[in-house]
Amino acid sequence: MDVEAAQRAVTDLLKALGKDPYSVHLEDTPRRVAEAYAEMLTPREFTMTTFPNDEGYDELVLARSIPVQSLCEHHMLPFHGVAHVGYLPGERILGLSKLARVVEMFARDLQVQERLTKQVADWLQDRLQPLGVGVVIEAEHMCMALRGVRVTGSRTVTSALKGVLREDPASRQEFFTLVQAA
Fold it and tell me: 181 pLDDT exceeds 90?
């Protein structure tokens, strides 16, 4: 990411909006905005920690209400809410904090909620090889709340299901029932 170019762009944006970027109140704004976007758009690295499923655990593992925040790629305004991420273990189980790390990894980008939901599910299915994965994200979009229709409090819900959680009606129902208990 070119933070210096982003600073120049923010300076130009402030000018285009009729503001004086060199005023005492705005002189450091281009740097702060550029650094804020760099932070919000840079995923933190992590190691996917898995463990052998020696006990043969074969029930759903679900982390509910994982905080999620991202930036809408259409307006560069935030959306925020919660993600519910679950999987049916196969040969390996995942360190629980890694479910939140995967959500964060994909959320730290210019996003649409639908793609974010699918990316989390695909990544877990591909790397963990569980029997199934389920992801539900509920989020409020500031592009709807602050502009246009100006609807506050409305939450968009998206889901992505893989493997048994998609194919088996009972497993699918169990996942959605546990998510709704949040």
Answer: no
Annotation marks residue 138 as catalytic: no
46-78 residues labelled b (16+ CB within 10 A) or e (exposed): eeeebeeeeeeeeebebbeebebebbbeebeeb
173 is catalytic: no
Query: What are the angstrom distances between the C-alpha of 62 and each of 87, 136, 137, 144?
Result: 7, 11, 13, 30
Task: Name the class of domain 50-180.
Answer: alpha beta
Question: How many CB atoms sit inside 10 A of residue 132's CB?
Answer: 24
Start and end residues for every CATH 3.30.1130.10 domain found in the chain: 50-180
Is residue 143 annotated as part of the catalytic site, yes or no? yes
Cβ contacts of 4 within 8 Å, gap of 6 or more: 34
Contact 62, 84 (CB under 8 A): yes
Q: Which of 74, 91, 114, 180 is catalytic?
A: 74
Catalytic pick among 4, 27, 73, 167: 73
How confident is the model at residue 24, as a pLDDT?
Answer: 97
Known catalytic residue: 84? no
Is 25 assigned a catalytic role? no
Give the global pTM.
0.95
